[in-house]
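Ligand: zinc ion. Inputs:
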Amino acid sequence: MAIASVGLTYWPQSKALADDRIWGYGDNNGPKQWSQLTPQYALCQTGTRQSPIDLQAEATIEPITVEIHYQPTPLTILHTGQTIQLVVDNASYLSLDNRDYSLQQVHFHHPSEHTLFGKPFPMEMHFVHADAANHLVVLSVFLKEGPENIELRPIWRTMPSQKTPAQVISNVQVDLEHLLPQGRRCFRYDGSLTTPPCSEIVQWIIFQDAIAISSTQLKAFASLFPTNARSVQPLNQRSVLQSL
Ligand SMILES: [Zn+2]
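Predicted complex:
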């Protein structure tokens, strides 16, 4: 096919080539192909501390102290091509082991990436935090089907249907703390980004209790992203902690 395309105008040709190399969740650029798209994504194949994982009942019981300090934030939203993302640019942060990590962004996966006792949830939400040295803490919340989620309503109403730069939605604030479950039991383990380059730099905190989202809300997200989740990875030698 390369010969047939010689002589075509540059624009469609170069755009098609670039798109082929952008990771995603399709047949040709999905998780099984990530490591072949560019050598920079090799860890997606060779890593031994990868995410997501299945969270099992035999996790080690241990106190996990996470202090969450979230502020209401103006709604700044974008479609990255792979998910819907909220950009957070305020004083929201969490403390873990007496270290502060500032909240950078929030995004969504459909279906969930982590599984709980072998079962996936309809969706999963990731709150991505970083310290000055770019150590990451990702706080994860499962979404289950139930009543409409009022807090998600302005996000769902404004989520772009195609890839776009970030847009600030005027006069709309999101209170991110309202997107966390009431129960604060959680799991903790060391893993990776669940997207390329799959860097093994993430401390994961996953709440055991899910928050609710309506079937209409689920369908709206699924129509934009039929699948944008990586499947579970081997635990290997890692331990998983679970708080009571
Ligand atoms: Zn994620």
